[in-house]
Amino acid sequence: MCDSTKFEDVIDFGLNPLVNSLLDTKNQKDGPTIPLVVEQCQKCFLVQIKNTVDAKEIYQNVDYLFFSSDMPNLDIYFREFAKDVKKRFLKFGDFVVEIGSNDGIWLYYLMGYKTLGVDPATNVALRALRKGIMTVPQFFTERLAGQIETEWGKAKVIMGANCIAHTNDLRELMRGVDKLLTDDGVFIVEANYWGDMVKNKNYALIYHDHFSYFTLKNWIDFSKQYGMRVFDAVIPPAQGDFLNREKKEDPFNIRIFIDRGQRPKTDRMKEILQNEIDTNLHSLETAQRYEKEVRADAKRLGDLIRKLKAEGAKIAGYGAAAKGFSILKLADIDERHIDYFVDDSPAKQGKFAPISHIPIISRREAEHQLPDYFLVTAPNYVNVIIGKEKDFKGHFITVDSNII
């Protein structure tokens, strides 16, 4: 986001595999492990991955195993998101482009408008096409933006939800947005929010797919370089627990609205920015405190799991999620402690976790070998999981070491 070369390390996870590089067989050879170190720029204070991975290795050279439509409640989340965008920014016939559109879960709720998805994962794009949602299986670049403009015209809304953090070249992204967006258009970014990660000591979002962890100020400063301006921002309800809005669950995301300067700045955006200032968010001191606190939390979780295992407890993971693998890594929990993962996604069932080779099975298959404890390794779905497992006679362990 800036030209600085001055960085300070925030946290080092050691050598990690790509989290979605699941194995087809238990004895399959593992892929490479790559350093996972988070650093902070000391000029713009963007928090980012130190050793980035070629995005083709994540999205194109293997089948990408995250399908938005397989996730509990995510359809409701994106339906409400689409409703807000339609009400505020669109009229019938407007053109909408979604970057990182996955299987089209958001664009589905914008049928009736002219829509186009862009997603580099070919297998994911094919699923969207099967639903009738036009999708280009490529990375979003300035060149592609020019091609879209030529064939389709300029877009009134360009949106990227939880894909912008997966983008290594943010300048290329913004050049493409600048080229494709109408003069009165809106660019919407939803991404990992460093502010909530610090506040809630969340380290589950740290893995190779996520190149950056943003603040509101990062985007305010960055958008100015392209003649754009942030006019609105909101901390949306957690994706996995959208129905429990009254509980104000820790969401870890921020949704940012950017235009070319026509719209007034909202009070809710100003409030978020002021909170960042009040909490000294853009500082090395805060990043260092974060590292100390999350290591303490991870140690507490690891100690609890090892204690229960030593007492003879059977423990399984609930959710073979990328977030869960990061938690287990920092807490030093592996195949010595976890017998299997349960996951509702058919794309993951029958596969094995990288390095640990822990099997991933369906909930139906787990019924015949239920554990004493389920460690919830999909933390953003903890309330959904516990809610649907009311008949389970054992206990749940959350990532903050609570036993329920």
Descriptive report:
The structure is a single chain. With about 400 residues, the chain is of the alpha/beta class. The protein has two domains: about 50-280, 3-Layer(aba) Sandwich (Rossmann fold); about 300-395, Rossmann fold (3-Layer(aba) Sandwich). The chain has helices spanning about 55-60, 75-90, 120-130, 140-150, 170-180, 195-200, 215-225, 265-280, 285-310, 320-330, 365, 380-390, and strands at about 5-15, 35-40, 45-50, 95-100, 115-120, 135, 155-160, 180-190, 210-215, 230-235, 255-260, 315-320, 340, 360, 375, 395. It has a seven-stranded mixed β-sheet. A five-stranded parallel β-sheet has the order 14-13-12-15-16. Helix 4 (about 140-150) runs parallel beside helix 5 and helix 9 packs across helix 10 (about 320-330). Residues about 240-250 have low confidence and may be disordered.
